[in-house]
């Protein structure tokens, strides 16, 4: 999806070219078919090839992916996920990012989330 978002639209071959370390063309087509069946992308015919485009906004897709990540790996716990990110050995989090996170946490507390 990241490559497709960057391109805006493209064929399976174009999407594959836009990826770092891509799988084979058959795998790309299979993934696009799955994404289409889930309502994440659509295609239009351009002669003999399909041109794919995202149907879901990048931010909304990111939220869906985070929901899946939380459920799959962190028992639906935001605290566990954030703790995992903050305690990574290679985590180099700028002070301004930590300040922003603290403000977001304060806002969430005040709003009773």
Question: Can you summarize this structure?
Answer:
This protein is mainly α.
Structural notes for this entry:
The chain has 113 residues and is mainly α. The protein folds into two domains: 2-54, Winged helix-like DNA-binding domain superfamily/Winged helix DNA-binding domain (Arc Repressor Mutant, subunit A, Orthogonal Bundle), CATH 1.10.10; 76-113, no CATH class. Helix content is 58%, strand content 11%. It has helices at residues 2-7, 12-17, 25-37, 58-73, 78-86, 95-110; strands spanning 41-46, 49-54. Strands 1-2 form a two-stranded antiparallel ribbon. A hairpin with a 2-residue loop joins strand 1 and strand 2. The model has no long low-confidence stretch (mean pLDDT 94).
Judged by helices, strands and strand pairing, the structural class is mainly alpha
Strand tally: 2
The CATH architecture term of the largest domain is: Orthogonal Bundle
Mean pLDDT: 94
Which descriptors apply to this entry?
113 residues; mainly alpha; Arc Repressor Mutant, subunit A; 2 domains; two-stranded antiparallel sheet; 58% helix; 11% strand; elongated
What is the strand and helix layout of this fold?
Blueprint: H1 2-7, H2 12-17, H3 25-37, E1 41-46, E2 49-54, H4 58-73, H5 78-86, H6 95-110
Antiparallel strand pairs: 1-2
């Amino acid at each position: 999806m990241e490559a497709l978002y960057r391109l805006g639209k493209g064929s399976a071959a174009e999407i594959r070219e836009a990826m770092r370390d891509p799988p084979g063309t058959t795998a790309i087509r299979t993934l696009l078919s799955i994404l289409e069946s889930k309502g994440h992308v659509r295609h239009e015919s351009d002669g003999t090839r399909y041109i794919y485009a995202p149907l879901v906004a990048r931010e909304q897709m990111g939220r869906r992916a985070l929901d899946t990540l939380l459920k799959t790996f962190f028992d639906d716990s935001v605290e566990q996920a954030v703790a995992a990110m903050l305690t990574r050995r290679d985590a180099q989090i700028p002070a301004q990012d930590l300040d922003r996170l603290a403000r977001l946490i304060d806002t969430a507390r005040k709003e009773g989330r």
